[in-house]
């Protein structure tokens, strides 16, 4: 459900008037925090979609997503916020995103914007980035038991360290460091072939 909805939201944004003025419309990248600001600076103007916490109530699922809008302009912070006639500004992006998403239709949902928020963090300002978050939600049917497509359980592999209680071994175990020494025990099971 969530993966399909995320894909549909990205497509809804990409095909909109807003999407045609953006450099990137995609899911939020799984980038370490230290690289995120640099990545956003290179991609701006951009919109990223990411799932947020949702709710379930009786027979209705209410998934929520956040659209991260990122603007940047070499002419300064006012041009990054307001635009300069050539590059879209954050306020224009926000207006267009709300207009497109509030009441927007995708294959599996009708969307409502519930909130927007500006990020005022010095690490973003120092890089000339202006950022807003748009929270959206939809009421939809929850996933059904027979509709989930998990596929066959193909393989199980586990590494065991019998004694992770010495300080050095324990820290290596906590860090999931599987380098030397080799695990004390390994288990590899293919259910289709038996154990």
Secondary-structure blueprint of this entry?
Layout: H1 2-14, H2 17-20, E1 24-27, H3 33-43, E2 46-57, E3 60-72, H4 77-82, H5 90-101, E4 105-106, E5 109-119, H6 122-125, E6 129-138, E7 156-160, H7 167-174, E8 185-189
Parallel strand pairs: 1-2
Antiparallel strand pairs: 2-3, 3-6, 4-5, 5-6, 7-8
Structural summary, described in words:
By secondary structure, this protein is α+β, with helices and mostly antiparallel strands. The chain folds into 2 domains: 2-143, 2-Layer Sandwich (STM4215-like); 156-189, no CATH class. The protein is built from 7 helices and 8 strands, in the order H-H-E-H-E-E-H-H-E-E-H-E-E-H-E. The strands form 2 sheets. The chain has a 6-stranded mixed beta sheet with strand order 1-2-3-6-5-4. The chain has a two-stranded antiparallel ribbon with strand order 7-8. The longest helix is centred in the N-terminal third of the chain and has 13 residues, at 2-14. The protein starts with a helix and ends in a 6-residue tail after the last strand. The model has no long low-confidence stretch (mean pLDDT 78).
């Amino acid at each position: 459900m969530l993966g399909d909805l995320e894909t549909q939201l990205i497509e809804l944004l990409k095909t909109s008037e807003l999407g045609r003025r953006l450099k990137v419309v995609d899911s939020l990248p799984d980038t370490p925090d230290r690289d995120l600001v640099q990545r956003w600076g290179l991609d701006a103007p951009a919109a990223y979609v990411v799932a947020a916490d949702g709710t379930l109530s009786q027979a209705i699922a209410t998934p929520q997503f956040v659209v991260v809008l990122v603007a940047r302009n070499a002419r300064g912070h006012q041009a990054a916020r307001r635009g300069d006639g050539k590059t879209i500004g954050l306020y224009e992006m926000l207006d267009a995103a709300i207009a497109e998403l509030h009441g927007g239709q995708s294959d599996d949902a009708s969307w409502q914007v519930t909130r927007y928020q500006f990020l005022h963090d010095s690490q973003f300002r120092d890089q000339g980035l202006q950022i807003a978050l748009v929270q959206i939600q939809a009421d939809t049917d929850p996933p059904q038991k027979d509709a989930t497509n998990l596929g066959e359980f193909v393989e199980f592999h586990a590494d065991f360290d019998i004694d992770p209680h010495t300080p050095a071994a324990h820290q290596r175990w906590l860090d999931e460091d599987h380098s030397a020494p080799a695990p004390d025990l390994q288990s590899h099971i293919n259910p289709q072939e038996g154990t």
